[in-house]
Amino acid sequence: MLSYVIDDDFKLALPRPRLDSAPLFAIIDQERDDIGRFLPWANGLKTEAEEAAFLRSVNDHFGREESMNLVLWYRDEPVGMISFNHFRPSDESGDIGYWLKQAVRGHGLMHRAVKAMCQIGFEEYGVNKVIIRAAVDNAPSNAVAKKAGFHHDGTHRAGEKLADGFHDENEYSLLRSEWLQMNRKV
């Protein structure tokens, strides 16, 4: 498996559709109400075959350098995903999205995954800005962005359409220069 190792227990890996679709779909299916609250695609994903097709499509996008979706592996078990949903060459940016299984939340995994994605984005893909967008009422996602040192750029009124209607959306960003400053070796 092609992976980015964070530590002995935690890594990010390119999806293997045939092998990863069943465990990822099981999480989504079991936690559909929770995941689907802020990620409406979860409510439309009905079968393991659909998840496998999604994973194949994101691998195709990765091959064309349009996006990068990675499976979060914690203690040898898939527990969620994180992605650069889009790379925008016009302004050298990439926006991050993520979801995580309830049982492993609150242990700093997503914070560490976001930091790893920033390193990949800034060092490997040469982006100048990494963006995170989160519904104002999605407190955990907003907390991840803040803890990772992202700047709150503003709030888009009715900026995100979720299953229950439009929600205001916070936008956060981290610039390469800020990331370098935060990660400067002393």
Automatic annotation (TrEMBL):
Residues in the signal sequence: none
E.C. number: 2.3.1.-
InterPro entries, per database record: Acyl_CoA_acyltransferase (IPR016181), GNAT_dom (IPR000182), Ribosomal_N-acetyltransferase (IPR051908)
Keyword Transferase assigned: yes
EC class of the enzyme, as a word: transferase
SUPFAM superfamilies linked to this entry: Acyl-CoA N-acyltransferases (Nat)
Entry protein name: Ribosomal-protein-serine acetyltransferase
